[in-house]
Write a structure and sequence with these properties.
2 domains, 10 helices, binds adenosine-5'-triphosphate, 363 residues
Length: 363
């Protein structure tokens, strides 16, 4: 059991609240990502869990052991928390072979020689470095070096593996390969992974559970699909997604047949570029627009659209979809199932409730 429980976890640096009374649970065996913009407190939270920082308030439980409690000043040191840590910089010993670097993880633990050899073999196989045990770090690619760093932690059999932006030094192709590798490792080891990243694509593709952080607080927690498809705030909606979110700050009199609460008040509407469609004929949910540019972007293509009243948006469609050229007048459909409404003051998601609710759900 390696569930991690945080209760009222708080950390200040001077006047700055880096982590603000956070309550959450990381289930055993999860691939859990802490996602958020620079400075939101991700690394601080990870360092609190690992024991490199002390709590100002709250408590942290790993498995059934309280590892930190601000009330009675409990603070179990990092080495005794049963965690492995992998950072952006691999910090391998340059004068040691791959084998010795990996075995280094076991030096401080009393493990019998025969057991060490067996573990080394299994671990190098797990990270697919079985043939490279004699090489030195300078003879390895960036991805291979990162795998040595992973092996050095995995050989200690940690209950939880903590990874802080481990792929950010790698080039784009290698990052993608390493993402697949990390997923495979997670499945194979059955351990909990806690992953810090500001890269939403990385979090979406790797995690079983994502917590989006903002200014030291939890903004939303959920499975990647839920966070992407059902963001509870404008912040989360804008932070996730590869194309820029289309937003329509609207006063009263939204030009679409919005239901109940959303119709009778100011709302901020948003829809993802891939959720806009070109329509054949007008209905309640279409609006006229002009195509101002058509941009091929490899696997997808993007239309820049201009609506009356100086509003603009982008529409994204797969590469082979037939799309109108620049200069064409079109009808754009705002699918009511995909349209999101937010409170302009708080940024919180507004539910489409009211008389049309039933209709909306069945569209
Ligand atoms: P990044 O993605 O840039 O690493 P982050 O989300 O991991 O950002 P943290 O490193 O946790 O953010 O920092 C959170 C806030 O706390 C920041 O405003 C940072 O400047 C501040 N902070 C972090 N560590 C310290 C420290 N040791 N002393 C003072 N302030 C700190």
């Amino acid at each position: 059991m390696s569930r991690i429980l945080l209760e009222g976890v708080t950390k200040r640096f001077g006047d700055h609240l880096a982590v603000d009374a956070l309550d959450m649970e990381i289930p055993s065996g999860a691939f859990f990502s802490l996602l958020g913009p620079s400075g939101c407190g991700k690394t601080t939270l990870m360092r609190l869990i690992a024991g490199f920082e002390t709590l100002d308030a709250g408590r942290i439980v790993i498995g059934d052991r309280v590892v930190a409690d601000a009330r009675n000043l409990t603070h179990i040191p990092p080495a005794q928390r049963g965690l492995g840590m992998v950072f952006q910089s691999y910090a391998l010993w340059p004068h040691m072979s791959v084998r010795d670097n990996v075995l280094f993880g076991l030096r401080t633990r009393k493990v019998a020689k025969a057991d060490q050899t067996a573990r080394l073999h299994d671990t190098l196989e797990t990270v697919q470095l079985g043939d490279l045990g004699d090489r030195f770090p300078s003879e390895l690619s960036g991805g291979q070096q990162q795998r040595v760093a992973l092996a050095r932690e995995l050989i200690t059999d940690p209950a939880v593996l903590m990874l802080d932006e481990p792929l950010s030094n790698l080039d784009a192709q290698l990052r993608q390969d390493m993402r697949l590798e990390l997923r495979r490792l997670h499945a194979r080891t059955g351990r909990s992974f806690v992953y810090v990243t500001h890269d939403q694509l990385e979090a979406l593709s790797l995690s079983s559970l994502i917590m989006v952080m903002r200014a030291g607080k939890m903004e939303q927690i959920g499975a990647p699909d839920d966070i992407y498809a059902d963001p509870q705030s404008l912040f989360v909606a804008e932070f996730l997604g590869h194309g820029k979110l289309n937003t329509f700050p609207n006063g009263p009199g939204v030009p679409l047949p919005l239901p109940g609460t959303a119709r009778d008040r100011d709302v901020y509407l948003a829809i993802r570029p891939e959720d806009l469609e070109i329509a054949d004929r007008a209905d309640d949910w279409t609006r006229p627009a002009q195509v101002t540019a058509k941009l091929p972007m490899g696997s997808v293509q993007v239309l820049a659209l201009s609506f009356p009243g100086d509003r603009t948006a982008t529409l994204e469609a797969p590469r082979h979809t037939q799309l109108p050229d620049a200069g064409t007048e079109v009808l754009v459909r705002f699918s009511p199932r995909r349209l999101m409404a937010f409170d302009p003051a708080t940024g919180q998601r507004l539910a489409f409730t009211g008389p049309r609710d039933r209709h909306l759900k069945s569209v």
